[in-house]
Amino acid sequence: MRCEHRAWTAAAGWDPAPALPDAGLVLYFGGREALASGGRHRELQAAYPGATLLGCSTGGHMLGAEIDDEGVVATAIRFGATRLRLARAAVRSSEDSHEAGLALGRALAAEDLCGVLVLSDGLHVNGTRLLAGLAAALGTGVPLSGGLAGDGARFAATLVGAGDRPPEERLAAAVGFYGGALRIGHGRAGGWAPFGPKRRVTRSRGNLLLELDGQPALDLYERYLGEEAAGMPGTALLYPLLIWDAARPQHDVVRTVLGVDRAARTMTFAGDIPEGWIAQLMHGHCDDLVAAAADAAGQAAGGGAAPGGDRLAIMVSCIGRRLVLGQSATDEIAAAAAELPGATHFTGFYSYGEIAPHAGSGACELHNQSMTVTTLAETAA
Fold first, then answer.
1. Is 152 left (phi over 0), alpha (psi -120 to 50) or beta?
2. CA 311, 17, 83 angle in degrees (round to 5)?
3. Beta strand pairing call for 25-30 and 13-15
4. Are 332 and 348 in contact (CB under 8 A)?
5. Residue from 184, 209, 9, 59 nearest 126 by CA
6. Which intervals hold domain FIST (predicted)?
7. How far from 324 is each of 233, 283, 357, CA to CA, in Å?
8. Do the beta carbons of residue 270 and residue 127 sit within 8 Å?
9. What's the DSSP call for residue 326?
10. In this structure, what DSSP letter does residue 231 have?
11. Confidence class for position 212, pLDDT limits 50, 70, 90
């Protein structure tokens, strides 16, 4: 397996020139404006005519150890013994999410499927239902990773491009990896701390939260945010929600806000908020978030590449973490990279939701406010 990275800016175009024109897979991440025309997608198609393309808009993408908001970064991968298959499905609204996941899973299912990388629209999808559909089609033994596309802190539109289709809204796409040569590692960590009283979810519908302890959920957030409440949903990212089933307290997940309806006093989250579950607000401190990023990379770092081969790490971190970290956001990238074996290539982006196995159950789930790391390497076999 071989990797190369290229970057596009409005001033300089693509740099450097492609050295792996026979690459089998090209992943790309970029600012919404840079991707919206479809030009960057078509340029990558021309540079890598035989490759499967998969990319999305972001809340910032990783350009080496730096973060860029306006350009595009692409990683081309040439596999030695791993086959690929691409699947796409429309997500017109969150109600379509489960069916979209089923469609993706059915298109990718095969006995030698060893892993799936998923990128999805970040605003119109219910990530919990999307992954449930994938798991229903593939079973729970196939690891899933990836993330929901972003749009900075604006939450206006997100884009996914796949195969011969340039980036567009309301699309979910996935690439399946096949064969016995690929080794896939996974890691996920948060670093957030719960605070305040524990509350019960008394009214919800899927990923729409109506009430906590019988009161409008939006009222609670507005009290905590004060004057910053006018900036929701962006400012609500500073206070994600930890939720868990009281019967399974060790199986907790974090949810982040995607939208608010002030007239209805409701909040839309990236994944399900089941009625009856317990919820608690969280906040983050920079040192803890950076340490968690290092922990996630350490979990994913096991397994080596064949002699002379490359390793790739795909980091997907939450836009909420970037907002809290501010100028220190590059510290979490550096901390994660430091835990990876030497000469590991890495790429990634800031998302509206992260997809990775749960550390407790092993089931692949939607996470929020997490750093997730997926490593790919082919063995000599």
1. left
2. 40
3. unpaired
4. no
5. 209
6. 22-216
7. 14, 9, 24
8. yes
9. G
10. G
11. very high
| CB neighbours of residue 213 within 10 Å | 13
| Sequence letter at residue 333 | I
Judge contact between 172 and 120, C-beta under 8 A: yes
The dihedral over CA atoms of 14, 19, 25, 28, expressed in degrees to the nearest 10, equals: -20
pLDDT value for 302: 67
Give the tokens for residue 195. 């605070």
Handedness of CA 60, 62, 67, 70 (dihedral sign): negative
Peptide bond before residue 341 is cis, with ω within 30 degrees of 0: no
Residue 360, pLDDT score = 65
Q: What is the C-alpha separation between 38 and 148, in angstroms, rounded?
A: 19
Tokens of 178: 């096949």
Structure tokens at 304: 């080596």
What does the pLDDT average to over 360-366?
Answer: 78
Please check whether residue 170 is in contact with residue 90, taking contact to mean a CB–CB distance below 8 angstroms: yes
Average pLDDT estimate for 86-97: 95
Q: Which amino acid is at 363?
A: A
Residue with more model confidence, 167 or 153: 167
Three state DSSP letters for 150-191: CECECCCCCCEEECCEEEECCEEEEEEEECCCEEEEEEEECC
Contact 277, 246 (CB under 8 A): yes
Report which of 142, 139, 174 is spatially closest to residue 160, judged by C-alpha positions.
Answer: 174
Which ranges of 15-75 would DSSP assign to H, the alpha helix?
A: 32-36, 39-47
Cα–Cα distance measured from residue 31 to residue 377, given in angstroms and rounded to the nearest whole number: 28
Report field, pTM of the whole predicted structure over 0.70: yes
Q: What is the pLDDT of residues 310-329, one digit of tens each?
A: 999 999 999 999 999 999 99
Q: Report domain extents, the chain.
A: 2-189+287-378, 193-283
Q: How high is the pLDDT of residue 381? A: 53
User: Using CA atoms, how far apart are residues 178 and 110, in angstroms rounded to an integer?
Assistant: 8
Q: Which amino acid is at 119?
A: L
pLDDT-derived band at 237 (thresholds 50, 70, 90) equals confident
> Phi/psi at 130 (nearest 5 deg)?
-60, -50
